Amino acid sequence: MQDKEDFLLLPLVEQFLTSRATRKPSPHSLAAYRRDLLGVAQLVADDPATPLPLAELPIRALTSRSLRAAFARFAAPRAAASIHRAWSTWNGFFDFLVAEAVVGGNPMPAVAKPRVPPAPPKPLRGERTPEQLLAGVARPDQRQRHPWPERDLAVLALALCAGLRLSELLALRTGSLVGREGERRVEVTGKGSRSRMIPVEPELDQVIVDYLESRRHRFGSRTVGPDSALLVDRHGVPLRRGGLQYLVESCYRRAGITDRVPPGARLHALRHTFATRLAEDGASAPEIMRLLGHASLATSQNYIEVTAEQERAAVRANRTNRSLGRLLSGQLATGGSD
């Protein structure tokens, strides 16, 4: 009978990824898990002392010592966040192997990982930019080949008024909007298959109703069943990741706000704008956590702390404060006055 420690790594990686698939991660996340596992494993296999083809690498070769050396080489060209993500993936992989009784323990606590501060929020820049974006997209643009302002407005409004992630928007069904008029909510399945209910205000409700009516007009009522995808392209086919990203970018261009979208944020800038405005309007960290589906309260607290810093920076930039500073400097220079 084969010793479990002689099991080959690659089949165990596939078993782990299959187990993760039941949590319904996005295809992007699954691809990242595989990339992190195989990238570090290849470095273990390439060890000059005991080189092996990756396909022949046994699980017993993955010791704390070999993993420390592999992670040191893996980390050299990468950012701290990428290293931290890979470490977390390997930690989850070994937890899976322990639970499956393939290995006796998890070596990852012996492998150092970088501390990664929460990434700062990247909302749209400019106090009135969200309103300008919505207004710019709500108007039909004759330069478009196939204008559909009702659909485009619904996408932006769901991100700006409900804080949905890209994957959450794609997962929405027409039946995700539940409740009676005035008490409507949207049911969202977020990261880790965590569900949450987000209140839908009458204005957002009306935007969605108008969009669904325009969809019926285009494709017929048969395309708007409760289990059909909520967001579709101009052919009535469910939107996919690339199509949704392109749509949002085209909305930025049409509204003339591309210079106010933080680099790399794309659709996520809308979610960050939703969260930032919640914080600015006095929402607590637990409220932000529930509405955005964060796994950690620290992530939600980050919006409040950044907002407080921005408020202080705005006050510091106030011309009256600067005038007061000059006045005080003058008094100090002359020894003050009675």
Automatic annotation (TrEMBL):
<feature type="domain" description="Tyr recombinase">
    <location>
        <begin position="119"/>
        <end position="316"/>
    </location>
</feature>
<comment type="similarity">
    <text>Belongs to the 'phage' integrase family.</text>
</comment>
<keyword id="KW-0233">DNA recombination</keyword>
<dbReference type="InterPro" id="IPR011010">
    <property type="entry name" value="DNA_brk_join_enz"/>
</dbReference>
<protein>
    <submittedName>
        <fullName>Integrase</fullName>
    </submittedName>
</protein>
<dbReference type="InterPro" id="IPR050090">
    <property type="entry name" value="Tyrosine_recombinase_XerCD"/>
</dbReference>
<dbReference type="InterPro" id="IPR010998">
    <property type="entry name" value="Integrase_recombinase_N"/>
</dbReference>
<feature type="domain" description="Core-binding (CB)">
    <location>
        <begin position="7"/>
        <end position="98"/>
    </location>
</feature>
<keyword id="KW-0238">DNA-binding</keyword>
<dbReference type="InterPro" id="IPR002104">
    <property type="entry name" value="Integrase_catalytic"/>
</dbReference>
<dbReference type="InterPro" id="IPR044068">
    <property type="entry name" value="CB"/>
</dbReference>
<dbReference type="InterPro" id="IPR013762">
    <property type="entry name" value="Integrase-like_cat_sf"/>
</dbReference>
<dbReference type="Pfam" id="PF00589">
    <property type="entry name" value="Phage_integrase"/>
</dbReference>
